[in-house]
Amino acid sequence: MEANDISIQVEDREGNISDLTAPTDMGLSLMEFLKASEYDVLATCGGMALCATCCVDVMEGEEKLNEMSDDEYAMLDTLPDLLPNSRLACQLQLNPGMDGLKVRLHAMD
Known about the structure:
Family: Belongs to the adrenodoxin/putidaredoxin family.
Order of helices and strands: EEHEHEE
Distance between the termini: 36 Å
Number of domains: 1
Number of helices: 2
Number of strands: 5
Strand order of the largest sheet: 2-1-5-3-4
CATH topology: Ubiquitin-like (UB roll)
Largest sheet: 5 strands, mixed
Domain 2Fe-2S ferredoxin-type: 4-109
Keywords: 2Fe-2S, Iron, Iron-sulfur, Metal-binding
Radius of gyration: 13 Å
CATH architecture: Roll
Cofactor: [2Fe-2S] cluster
């Protein structure tokens, strides 16, 4: 693992859990990293916090994340099955402080 890499655990919608190594020196969001790792993340709006199709549920490490913006909160608030730990992956820039983060892809209707 490179010095700028972090460990992220991802649970897909079928319950499969993978331990991934993510770079923090490329300016990627969690959404971009998940898509590059071939997870089923639609990201219809391209990461502009306009569609909520990249929603993840933070299972561990929520305290390591940046504060939620008004735009992110407003978009999440449109989801009928919003959880208190739901976040938009497009709004989470990967950084060294996120090492050990555990997320689950949010269920899609």
